[in-house]
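Q: What would this complex look like in 3D?
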Amino acid sequence: MKRVITASLNRNAFQFEDDAYARLEGWLADASARLQGDPDRAEILADLEQSVADKCTRRLPTGRTVITLDELVPALQEIGHVEAVESASSATAVAAGASAEHGATAGGAAPSASIALQQISQGAWISGVCLGLARSASIDATLVRVIALLLLFVTGGGLILLYGVLMLIIPFAPIDPAQPPMKALPAKCRAAIVYLRSKLSALSG
Amino acid sequence: MNNPTEIKLAPLRKGLLEFVVLKIVGVESLYVPDILRRLANTEFATQEGTLYPLLSKLRREDLVQYEWRESETGPPRKYYRLTTAGEAQLATLDDYWTRINRTLAGLGRSMEVPS
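A: Here is my prediction, written as structure tokens for the whole assembly.
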């Protein structure tokens, strides 16, 4: 038995099995990050959502109403990677990082001495901060997580606040299609942070 | 397909995609799956992930515009067509492309020595 999640795609309700939902959420968060700085991001995302919905429903066998990975994965493959077009206005470092194809370092602004600090959603427990810190410092992720857990107790929960701040400021690494997809929680974190950042940049700009 | 020549040709096609899209919607109003089908069996085969952001940019530059049309099988669809500015730009690009081709053909010949 699998849990079913109802989601709104371009303002229409669709039902997904939870793993398909997590995959789609991650894909959309990635698309959103890639389109950061595009003035029409919301409209493009709505177009893409509509396209996902069309392709999934077209693939649903008759009599079935819940979209699974069987329908979603080929639909996303058909749509392909979201590629931002070169924009005349200077894009943010996050956009540069997201659109850099399999680049080892993010953007031209980042120092090239070491691997740029990024949140890595694929393989993350929460949002990928520890995994990103570990990769950036070239140390084992488990070690970083153990230290984080110890600090969590030492600081009496204060680390949660720090983690939240880090989530907000560290750019996300682009989704690597060759890697397993992110789990439900990292996908949720990524989507939430991308949304928060867009709200914050709308406020400041 | 990842041979060295292909790696050099890929950015060329990418750069021309905008021109190609203007050319296609210059013929008739089309919605995105139509455009993808027109490109499917050509060197410029592409996907929605690339096409939507590109069309959006062309619309911002006032080169294309879209209108919503009802569909019998689903939600309304966006049909794209060229604006007057788009037609002008396409004419310029067409002209430029012809000139480039002529130049390339000319450079390919040996220098004619006047006798």
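A: To summarize the key features: The CA atoms of residues 39 and 60 of chain B lie 23 Å apart. Chain B touches chain A at residues 32, 46-50, 52-54, 56-57, 59-60, 74-75, 78 (CB under 8 Å).
Q: Very helpful, thank you.
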